[in-house]
Amino acid sequence: MTKKRTPTEELTYLAKMEFINMVVILLMYFLYTALFYVNLDLFGAFADGQASLAELLPYRLNWLTFYPVLLLCLVLLEGSLYWFNFLQRVRRKKALSKKQIGRIFTKVKVVTLILYALYVPIFLLNMGQTSLLACVVAVCIYLFAIIEYVNYFHIRLSFYTKDYQGLLVAKPLRIIFQKEAGNPSKLAQEIAYFKKGDNVSVQKKLEK
Q1: Range of the domain at 148
Q2: Is residue 133 part of a domain?
Q3: Transmembrane stretches, by residue range (predicted)?
Q4: Considering the entire predicted model, what is its pTM?
Q5: Domain count, the chain
Q6: Of 88, 103, 114, 153, which is most buried by a Cβ count within 10 Å?
């Protein structure tokens, strides 16, 4: 049985893995989609120096699928930065306080939500110009990005298995479909902490 990680080890793991996952997802997206554009007929000419890379790989960015990938990577980056700051706080090194994090991520949450909403018109405008498979893949990535957004800014949806070798699947699904009560995520708690303090300050000003 795998030994449970200490709080410092867990925070280090979360900060690193969220960033690594973001980089891997971006690389996989570009490498996978690039395969669809490779002009194999020009490979020989490219090897001989008679064709350019642009001719061999006339890559065109598909915003229908790329935008939700960006959304997913954005949330992973936000998560990585949050966990890194939390780690610094636990180590008693220079870090943003709970109130400062709450103030910053209150704004980040709104901006992120707006970016998520913008995908709806992007999808509708581009869905007729791409294949059904690309539309299905795009929707799946978008839904996964929404789950990550909820996991960080609202309710915790990621839970380890008993051996700490993977993540549970059934438990978050029960929470999503309201078959089981969920708990606020750590970031959601810090945002609530900031808002509570902010409301108290406003109330005191009004009472003066």
Answers
A1: 9-18+62-207
A2: yes
A3: 20-40, 60-84, 104-125, 131-152
A4: 0.82
A5: 1
A6: 153
Question: Tokens 């109130």 correspond to what residue?
Answer: 99
Structure tokens that stand for 184 in this block: 């606020």
